[in-house]
Amino acid sequence: MSILVDRETRVICQGITGKAGAFHTAGCLDYGTNLVGGVSPGKGGTKSEHGLPVFNTCHEAVAATDADATMIFVPAAFAADAAMEAADAGCALIVLITEGIPTLDMVRLREYLDDKGTLLVGPNCPGIITPGECKIGIMPGYIHQPAEDGRKAVGIISRSGTLTYEAVWQCTSRGLAQSTCVGIGGDPVKGLNFIELLELFEQDETTDAIVLIGEIGGSDEEEAAEHIRQNVTKPVVAFIAGRTAPPGKRMGHAGAIISGGEGTADSKVRALREAGVVVADSPAEIGESVAELL
Amino acid sequence: MPGMKVHEYQARQLLAEAGVPVPASRVVETAEAATAAYNDIRGRVVVKAQVFAGGRGKAGFVKLCSDAAEVRAAADFMLRNRMVSPQTGPQGIAVKKLLIASAVDIAKEYYAAVVVDRGRRRPVVMVSREGGVEIEVVAKEKPEAIVKHWLHPHLGLLEFQLAQLVAALGITAKEQVAAARKVIRGLVDVFYKYDCSLAEINPLVCTASGEVMAIDAKMNFDDNAVFRHKRLQEMFDPSEENPMELRAKEHNLSYIALEGNIGCLVNGAGLAMSTMDIIKLHGGEPANFLDVGGSVTAEGAVEAFRIILSDHKVKGVLVNIFGGIAKCDTIAEALIAAAREIGFKVPVVVRLEGTNVERARTMLKEAAIEQLITAGDLTDAAKKVCAKVA
Fold it and tell me: Which of A17, A256, B28, B327 is such that its CA lies 20 to 30 A from the CA of B389?
């Protein structure tokens, strides 16, 4: 078991003929992802360098391939539109890798997707992976350990890309598998957040523990802490990046009002510890902390 | 999201174009022009230095004047002296532009702002009768004094919301209601039109003669959206930015100068922050935050080395790369090029993992760079670099 994606997930790539799209499509295919085609306006009817069918629109791609998920590498200026097209075409899960999307585009996109019930991972994220089954994104596959042979497995949720790899690698090095790892991205307005994913991991039979990687800014971690206190029975390990970051480089004044003055690493660490979460002090101790709990 | 800023006079200009009433004003660059501007405006005026740094009032760079001679003296002082405030550092900053604005008799001060509420994933309009003071203080001590209306992502500001916002300000006289509506509508329009992350009027005032107008405005713009606003690109003023940070930005590097002596080169903001965290945990002090980003090229990474090594405080460098989009061999190529071009005079501890790591390790081994020390994991890397600079 896993959450959101598995070996049955049928994936297309929007932007498959671009440099990044082509490179990471190859990576996902190598990993064994069930990638069934791609979209690149104006190049419909051709084959990608990987031999996959290329379509002009998402609607054509979904009709021809029965895809239910998409991985988007479209440039920032057009990425929100690409995601809306995917949702309209019937993709149930959108993994938006693109970074630099304007916040107001994300505001409009989220509303559109919520209306349709479409799930979004990202933007500005590494993507999602169920080790051994399905990788949708840019993470290095080999660092992951599939949940098999009765290994204990962790579910990972992270606002940071590369720090997620760090946490995964530490778990794998200690013999711990991962059920699914989700990089939710660090943008202020995004798709799936800690709470929705905590719920999914709590219900997932394979997941024995949950790793939550947050960072300074906003109040998502504090809200996650409250959710954990009330609803999560599985052990949770957390790390908050930016405990030593100098203040004042991030938020405008009025933004701090909205988050009620929260957003500091201390506030997040305190909230999580009060909710019974083990918070690692060093980014190098995430894996060790999970291993000790299991 | 915090992003680009514009000067007060530019924010006023954007608001005025959106129909928000603002006092008559002129922007000048010389004392002569200031006098000429005064002769157009007349009465009492405020002379204000146009800089991003706060603390202008206390530094003497905002001055109320009643005649041409006073305006000339104030302008002369501000253009000749560097402004020093807690926000500028002891060296202060040069003032190039002044705003000469008609001073109004204020009867009542209000606050109005639009900002993105990340929790609710939509913009929120906030108004308060407690204007002219720091809104953070109001939020903390009297949160009920701030009235908020969240904007529908597709519909924007609705009529009933506008009516309720104006009512919340306690404005009831017919003409003033009409003016206040124009102000809030205009503020929301500017927020959307230019992809603001913050658009704020503080204070919004009602004058003794009953006019409603914006006296001071502050705007920040979403960095991710500046590409689609030529107007904002033209307004960009790099004079108060850190030159190294600007240089980094040109190469798509995210760099923030800090006080320590360990230079950091990392991919990903989260990992970059964590690398700083672990350096401190092992007794060291980072000299900078530097995220090379996902789509980094070898050239970009070499530039990153140039920037880090041009900081003379740097006694050691920690390179921490977990390859995803960024590839380890790209970083290895940059390390080799940087060693050849700049030369490593300080120890460079390198920790690589992820995409193409094997090829990268082979490349580095073959290049046999002096001063280069490889590390196994994050703790090992942090310990090694801290020991080297100690």
Answer: B327
B249-273: average pLDDT: 89
More confident of the two residues B53 and A196:
A196
Residue A83 has pLDDT above 90, yes or no: yes
Question: What are residue A15's phi and psi, to 5 degrees?
Answer: 95, 30
Q: What are phi and psi of B31, to 5 degrees?
A: -65, -35
B residues 296..355 contacting A (CB < 8 A)? 321-325, 353-355
Q: Which of B38, B110, B111, B255 is catalytic?
A: B111
* B111 is annotated as an active-site residue: yes
Beta bridge partners of A212: A157, A238
Which candidate in B8, B130, B200, B333 is catalytic? B200
- Largest CA-CA distance found in chain A, in angstroms, rounded: 57
Buried (b) or exposed (e) across A263-285, using 16+ Cβ within 10 A? bbbebbbebbeebebbbbebbbb
Mean pLDDT of chain B: 92
pLDDT tens by residue, A98-127: 989 999 999 999 999 999 999 999 999 999
Residues contacting B46, CB < 8 A, separation 6+: B62, B63, B64, B65, B99, B100, B101, B103
**B268 closest CB neighbour out of A161, A219, A239:** A161
Between β-strands A278-279 and A236-241, what pairing exists: parallel, antiparallel or unpaired? parallel
Chain B contact present for A263, CB below 8 A: no
Q: What is the DSSP letter of B127?
A: E
Q: What is the CA radius of gyration of chain B?
A: 26
How big is the A-B interface in CB pairs under 8 Å? 195
Q: What is the pTM (predicted TM-score) of this model?
A: 0.92
pLDDT at residue A262 in the model: 60
Q: Do A282 and B116 touch (CB under 8 A)?
A: no
The answer, yes or no, to whether residue B37 has pLDDT greater than 50, is yes
The mean pLDDT of B234-263, rounded to a whole number, is 86
pLDDT at A248: 54
Task: Look at the block and give the residue holding tokens 């850190």.
Answer: B242
Angstrom distances, CA of residue B16 to CA of A92, B9, B90, B186, B225:
45, 10, 35, 8, 22
Q: Are strands B106-117 and B196-207 parallel, antiparallel or unpaired?
A: antiparallel
What domains are defined for chain B?
1-22+105-240 (3.30.470.20), 24-103 (3.30.1490.20), 243-389 (3.40.50.261)
User: Nearest to residue A65, comparing CAs of A136, A12, A6?
Assistant: A12
Contact A140 B324 (CB under 8 A): yes
Of B105, B61, B67, nearest to B81 by C-alpha is B61
End-to-end CA distance of chain A: 19
Taking each helix axis from N to C terminus, what angle separates B174-193 and B8-17, rounded to the nearest 10 degrees?
Answer: 110
The answer to whether A87 touches A118, Cβ cutoff 8 Å, is yes
Task: Tell me the per-residue pLDDT of B302-360, one tens digit each, with 9 for 90 and over.
Answer: 999 999 999 999 999 999 999 877 889 999 999 999 999 988 999 999 999 988 899 99
A20 contacts in B (CB within 8 Å)?
295, 325
d(C-alpha B184, C-alpha B144), whole Å? 20
Q: How would residue A251 be classed by pLDDT, with cut points 50, 70 and 90?
A: very low
